[in-house]
Design a protein that fits this description.
With 188 residues, the chain is an alpha/beta fold. The chain contains five helices and seven strands. The chain has helices at 36-45, 61-72, 115-125, 139-147, 158-165; strands at residues 48-52, 76-80, 86-87, 90-93, 105-108, 129-132, 151-153. A seven-stranded mixed beta sheet has the order 3-4-2-1-5-6-7, with helices on both faces. The longest helix has 12 residues, at 61-72. The chain starts with 35 loop residues before the first helix and ends in a 23-residue tail after the last helix.
Length: 188
């Protein structure tokens, strides 16, 4: 599994469900994710994000995403890693159940085989959305979460999506193509 916020050719491109797409990496996918407007809605409604599988290693995507969310987003961010006491100067929690709040979004950086268990844990704590990072796709986890009423996003990066919707992709070296004299206002 690639769970990094990196460019993946074809990532996020529509894949015909019946054909499984022409890209072998997307073969067999039947689940259809939310469109851009729905993803924006998930991000706008959220106040808290729990990063499951967060790491203190600066080479890990979860570290990069955590750094971005803490510095460039309005979210209260919680790190979940049972082997860490602190990540990016913030307390790390052993599980979602140990968090002091119910997370709106559970952003997952775990192996594919762990995803159904994380989905069950997200449901158990009352999270509103399960978000699986780029390269992460598990239809069983999606079904568990959706059957419990959670929004589900797979194979997308929270950092990239937040930056894209808020005119900040240029912060990561991408040209957004947005030309405006208006400064983006971020509600806290």
């Amino acid at each position: 599994m690639t769970n990094a916020c990196e460019f993946t050719p074809g990532a996020g491109a529509p894949v015909p469900a019946a054909a499984g797409g022409s890209d072998p990496a997307h073969a067999g996918r039947t689940w259809q994710g939310p469109g851009a407007g729905a993803r924006l809605g998930i991000l706008r409604r959220a106040k808290t994000i729990a990063i499951v599988g967060a790491s203190n290693n600066p080479a890990r995507a979860s570290y990069f995403v955590g750094t971005y969310l803490l510095s460039s987003s309005p979210y209260e961010v919680f790190f979940v890693n049972p082997r860490a006491d602190e990540i990016l100067g913030e307390k790390a929690y052993a599980s979602l159940a140990d968090l002091p709040v119910v997370p709106d979004i559970v952003d997952v950086f775990r192996r594919d085989e762990d995803l159904p268990g994380v989905a069950r844990e997200a449901v158990a704590v009352g999270a509103k959305a399960l978000w699986l990072q780029l390269g992460s796709w598990n239809e069983e986890a999606a079904k568990i979460a959706e059957d419990a009423g959670l929004d589900v996003v797979m194979d997308r990066c929270v950092k990239i999506e937040h930056a894209r919707f808020h005119g900040g992709l240029h912060l990561a070296g991408f040209d957004t193509g947005v030309i405006s004299s208006k400064r983006q206002v971020v509600a806290r």
